[in-house]
Amino acid sequence: MQQRPLGRTGHNVSAIGLGTWQLGADWGAVSEADAEAVLAASIDHGVTLFDTADVYGDGRSETIIGRFLAARSGHGVTVATKMGRRLAQEPENYTPENFRAWTDRSRRNLGVDTLDLVQLHCPPTAVITADETYDALDALVADGTIAAYGVSVETCAQALAAIARPHVTNVQIIVNPFRLKPLDEVLPAAAAAGVAIFARVPLASGMLSGKYTAQTTFAANDHRTYNRHGEAFDRGETFSGVDFEVGLAAVAELTEALPEGVPLPAATLAWIAGLEGVTSVIPGARNVSQAQKNADAAALLDEGVDLSGFDAAVRRVYDERLRAAIHPQW
């Protein structure tokens, strides 16, 4: 699998990584054995980036990853975690003291002295634009608590503000066929600044798997049930903010534009990973089959599969069905 520079760190990460929200909570139950099998399958297929957060299962995701990697010396995996959602997302809670408490907890969960990469977890804009935020993060780098830091964001404006900071390693932002606004300014700005981009929610909460129908239902504790309209957190985190019925219609059109023999999820992941400025795409997986299919999408890049027709369809469908509702919001 392609390995790409992680910002200015001197390290590389895989073009397809693994998001591990599913291994914590909010997607229905995943046993610890199944979670470890997902991690193993991902590594075996060349994945060298695990993305997690301290609130995924209240630390369950971090803890499972930590135990798993401790048993695999020389694993070569970069673990990117996130902090900032253990308290209300209000600017006054983003203090040096809380940063230290949150990172100390993540170090315990992951079983490491120094965290590879810590990202602020979609904080308020006021936090992203404050000098004090980066002073506190720089102090954690200086004393060895963290090796590098980045910011996960909701909006393109937030991404551009973070990219402008000299020590930001990466920005994590939603990029997929339902969310094209980052292509306008964010990806070019990140490439020019040497900032890595992690494309999150790449399959639009599974909508771009092509498996859902109007009759599909989800568990009560699955955010695709309880957050469709932003009841619990930003609506854009669920189906990328796209109405479920509209998303189904868009998926049907995109499916018609697929190269022969290429499934929609693989085409989508390869298309995102092929965008200039994207460092790694971080789909989630709840089982080994999903993990294998996610990682195998990288082979489309290596084999030079022609996705130009799919690219044209993505842009047309976005303009016709999604732009008016999505572009102004994020």
Automatic annotation (TrEMBL):
CDD domains: AKR_AKR11C1. Coiled coil: none annotated. One of its GO terms (molecular function) is oxidoreductase activity. Keywords: Oxidoreductase. Pfam families: Aldo_ket_red (PF00248). Residues 15-299 form the NADP-dependent oxidoreductase domain. InterPro entries: AKR_Detox_Biosynth (IPR050523), NAD(P)_OxRdtase_dom_sf (IPR036812), NADP_OxRdtase_dom (IPR023210). One of its GO terms (cellular component) is cytosol. PANTHER family: NAD(P)-LINKED OXIDOREDUCTASE SUPERFAMILY PROTEIN, NADH-SPECIFIC METHYLGLYOXAL REDUCTASE-RELATED. This is Aldo/keto reductase.
